[in-house]
Amino acid sequence: MSLAMLPAEAPAAPPRLLVQGLTRRFPGVTALGEMSLRVRPGEVHALLGENGAGKSTLMRILSGVLKPDEGTIAVDGEVLSFRSPLAARRAGIAMIHQELQQVPELTVAQNMFLGRSLRRGGLLVDRARQEALAAEALAPLDPAIRPDAPVRSLRVAQRQIVEIARALLDDARIIAMDEPTSSLTPSEFERLAAVIAGLAARGVAIVYVSHKMDEVFRICGRATIMRDGRFVAEVDLAGTTESAVVAMMVGRALAVAPHRSSVRSETVLSVRGLTAGTRVVDASFDLRRGEVLGIAGLIGAGRTELLRLVAGADPRTAGTITVNGRPLARPGPRAAIAAGIGLVPEERKRDGIVPQRSMVANVALPSMPRFAPRFLVRRRRLRAEAARLLAEVNLRPMQIDRPIRLFSGGNQQKGIIARWIAAGTQILLFDEPTRGIDIGAKAEIYGLIERLAAEGRSVIVVSSELPELLRLSDRVLVMRQGRIAAELQRSELSEQAIVAHAVPRSPRTA
Amino acid sequence: MLTLTAPAPGPRPRLHVPWRDFGTLLGLALLMLVFWLAAPGFLTERNLLNILQQSSINACVALGMTLVIVSGGIDLSVGPVAALSAVLSASLMVGGVPPALAVLAGLALGAACGLVNGALICFGGLQPFIVTLGTLSTYRALALIATDGNPVFGVPPAFRAVVNGTVAGLPTAVIVVLVVALLAGLILRRTPFGEYLLAVGGNEEAAHIAGVPIARTKIGAYMLSGLLAALAATILVGRLGAAEPILGNLWELDAIAAAAIGGASLMGGKGSILGTLLGAVILGTMRNGLTLMNVQAFYQLLATGLIILLAMLVDRFARGRA
């Protein structure tokens, strides 16, 4: 795709960032094919595409981690020859990664000057001057962050601000942000939006990568959409709609499916007084057969903790869990799994998959004893059943002997769902089921959750995405500060109702 | 339907091609080619059998070490475990206990030492490196205390004859190690326990949530490592006719080297039984060939160190930068 295909523009100053014909091939795939991107000074420009569309590859080339096979990158009209991350930084390109790259034990100032510390007499680190400069850079962003505080003590949102301040110290002219809001609360997002607006006002060009369409439409002016490693379109967001953008991302229109309910009468899970320190306090609820129970709440409200307690992944300090009338006596995931409970964790890489092992091995992990009735694993039977279940959940490509780490997030999630079906699980606990999953695969995961419920399994879904909860849930529990603050029936469900219960009350009004 | 049915046996799993093992084999072949050209008398049947026999003790220890490394741990205590078990079984034999029973007691002691290692790691919440560093000294001290530092002499000749004999033209020790390797391969690739070892070493938290019995798996690995160290000690006692409490010094390093050359990752989750065997033979071939060439001991040590580093660098670059 050549620049000629970008919309015409008055030949004023050169764009701050101009990417042309950028190509990068990996064995077997072209991750990036003649990609173009144009960002003006002071513009907040969204880079949109499904997972696997090539956004990360483009980001990695911009930050100098990866070298392109062909193509050019120019900053303010000057073509760069990228050799290293340091060269990219010198050219004024800064990257705010999704997983922040900081050393938790070091202070804010030490992190900001990591790898280029200020010296006194050429030998000693001048901590005082570093902290003064750090404070100066932080002041307009978030004066509450102390330069001498260890980064470990900061919340994710504050750590992000530190990264941005560090970029400003570098005199960054272009700041690329990769999913910066994935773990921010609404108020933290507002603060970040204000910071971004401030940066743009200073002429910094922002490249903003996010899956959250509402945010993109709020803070970005224009967007470049890519698919399969290629440029699809550059659009003015004010003149288009969310569904039009999504259609360009996936190459087809996605139907918005209505809610489907399969709730039966019998209760399969009863939780009473479940407590773990102050993270989860006195949680009680029931789950019925075929029901999809949503759990809403802010980050840190105790939703993930509650799921992990029910799944036996963490020890509980008080409370009972009863499955089909039988209380879970022993602690630990094995007892929960034997009773028919399975956890689909949010952080797949950390808690879900054994990365080097094949898709088949990951599916079979909890069911190994069933496949090895007499000491030796009956591999053919195991593989056949895994293949059948993976076909059911629509794994693509069906290369089931490939290490699971080589699959996309959506496919890994399908693998974990297949894992619990293979284990005969009746109660599936999903923690942020579509985090890090592209829009196309998202709809598939929703379909699978509905199918699980329709076939008589029960599901609990923890999600920060309200539309997701509204689409899937028969009932929603709202958690606030470790407690279940409200229970909303399907008829009472709305984004406003959930938010109203989720936001902490100040001590005076409570 | 997303349901459980009993499916008919499907197609055979596609054969897993062990490229890494081919690489190790190639390394061994190259090494042998060099010695064939440089060391007269290297490529004779007698010398090759000699190499296998000399490698068998390290191979035996390294197989247990591989299982531990796959589980994400390390066992530094294998040498002292071997000494402790050698001292016990030799003393029993000298005291008139039938050799078979004495050997079994030694093997049981080895497994028990592993049990202690595993239990300290799983229930004491300590790092494997630290635990086995501690038991490395503790077990060695126990062996020295039990014997007053003196070797146990007078192992029955009948026992020595069996250990040093041959079966179908191959030294008994080599046969024993081959059988052990076959069993270890079966355990690692064909049993739930083996799958659990790979899972625990690959991602312990994910394995925990998937219902893998973490403690049982790890403890099992350390028990097997202790058992195989004890088995190696039995072979050595048969060969020497005595059990020294200082036996097995630095065995852990040779065993780790063999496993690493064979493709085991010290990060856990990855390892090859065949590779470890080949790794042990590579180390044995080095020593044998250099001795035939009359290379001084200091230079032999240097060559061994360099071959380990070279093997790891080749491995790293063959896999490409992550």
Question: Can you offer a commentary on this structure?
Answer:
The complex is a heterodimer of chains A (510) and B (322). Chain A has 510 residues and is of the alpha/beta class. Chain A folds into 3 domains: 1-92 and 174-179 and 207-254, Rossmann fold (3-Layer(aba) Sandwich); 257-340 and 426-502, P-loop containing nucleotide triphosphate hydrolases (Rossmann fold, 3-Layer(aba) Sandwich), CATH 3.40.50; 358-424, no CATH class. Helix content of chain A is 32%, strand content 25%. Chain A is built from 18 helices and 22 strands. In chain A, β7 (119-120) and β8 form a beta hairpin. In chain A, α14 packs across α15 (409-422). Chain B is mainly α. Chain B has one domain (45-315): ABC transporter involved in vitamin B12 uptake, BtuC (Orthogonal Bundle), CATH 1.10.3470. The chains are: A alpha/beta (510), B mainly alpha (322).
Mean pLDDT of chain B: 92
Number of DSSP strand runs of chain B = 2
Largest interface (CB < 8 Å): A-B, 48 and 35 residues
CA-to-CA gap between the ends of chain A? 58 Å
Identify the CATH architecture of chain B: Orthogonal Bundle
State the separation between the terminal residues of chain B, measured CA to CA: 40 Å
Largest beta sheet: strand ordering of chain B? 1-2
CATH class of chain B: Mainly Alpha
Would you report the number of β strands of chain A? 22
| Poorly predicted spans of chain B | 6-10
Number of helices of chain A: 18
Radius of gyration of chain B: 20 Å
Number of domains of chain A: 3
Write down the overall geometry of chain B.
Answer: globular
Question: Summary?
Answer:
The complex is a heterodimer of chains A (510) and B (322). Chain A is built from 18 helices and 22 strands.
List its traits:
heterodimer; A: 510 residues; alpha/beta; Rossmann fold; 3 domains; six-stranded mixed beta sheet; 32% helix; globular; disordered N terminus; B: 322 residues; mainly alpha; ABC transporter involved in vitamin B12 uptake, BtuC; two-stranded antiparallel ribbon; 13 helices; membrane (chain B); transmembrane helix (chain B); transmembrane (chain B); cell membrane (chain B); transmembrane transporter activity (chain B)
